[in-house]
Amino acid sequence: MQVRLGYIGFYPQDFGDEYVMHQDLRDGVRELRKALRVVAAHLEPGEDSKPSMRDLGTAVDGLRGSIWGILQDAHTDDLREYQAEVRVARAGEICGLVLEHLYTATIRPDLEGYEMLRASLRELHAIAGKEMG
Amino acid sequence: MSELDRAITFIDRALAEIESRLREPDIPISALEDFKATLDSTRTVVQAIIGASGPGDYEHNVYRFRLRRAAQVCQSVLFGLLDGSINPSTPGLTELRATVAETLQHMDAFAGGADKTAR
Q: How far apart are CA B2 and CA B53, in angstroms?
């Protein structure tokens, strides 16, 4: 009977790089959940959750960096194109999110950053129009 | 349930989902991309909470961070277009241009309305 790796007779080295990658990510997620539990434990009235939130922020940043590294490694052959695609996708997502907030009027013109984004969008729209003809 | 409770519940659910996916022997790159997008949202939540001076401040901060982040990301696309690393063949650019036009139209109309109200 053939047994799938990872269940019986499991040795980490059998997975090679993939095992290491998954293990790193699993460790990162565990660390993040631990940080989250610490934050949740500080939610009692009068408690300051900010120091633990900062730890949580550090854990998030660490994990984001690891994942970005993995994604870039997976695209070594077309890294430049991949990075360009990711930037465009990210811009589309966040503009879509802002648009939703505009529809529900939760983002208002008096918010700090409104005019900065408006100017950036105007510039991007003009340049993209010129480039795309 | 406070905004912070809600945020923590959201992050915890997302992490549990990710943790279960990481048990799969072969995670597709698209799953990691989704994971990174979740972490980006989580980061905004964490920054908003750290920057909030009180419970009512939290949502205000989330919107403020989103506006700032959107401006930064749009600037990075703009630089990409100018240096040629982003060009008409980049997937998603046509859709982005449409989203940018719609967002700008709403922002202009909204700001115009606010200007008239202020007068």
A: 15
Rounded Cα distance between A83 and A6, Å, is 34
Phi, psi dihedrals of residue A48, rounded to the nearest 5°:
-95, 115
Q: Name which of A64, A83, A115 is nearest B36 (Cβ-Cβ).
A: A64
Model-level pTM greater than 0.80?
no
Q: Could you tell me if the ipTM is greater than 0.85?
A: no
Per-residue model confidence as pLDDT tens digits over A44-89? 555 566 777 777 788 788 888 888 888 888 888 898 999 999 999 9
Q: Which alpha helices (DSSP H) does A7-113 contain, by range?
A: 16-41, 50-73, 79-103
Instruction: Give B52 to chain A, closest Cα distance, Å.
Output: 9
Going by C-alpha positions, the residue among B102, B107, B81 that lies closest to residue A88 is B81
Residues 95-124 of A with CB under 8 A from B: 95-99, 101-103, 106-124
Q: Do B107 and A118 meet the contact criterion of CB atoms below 8 Å apart?
A: yes
Identify all chain B residues contacting A125, using CB atoms and an 8 Å cutoff.
97, 100-101, 104
* Inter-chain residue contact A109 with B22, CB threshold 8 Å: no
Nearest-CA neighbor of A33 among B70, B20, B28?
B20
Rounded CA gap, A102 and A114, in Å? Answer: 11
The amino acid that residue A86 corresponds to is V
CA distance A7 to chain B (A): 11
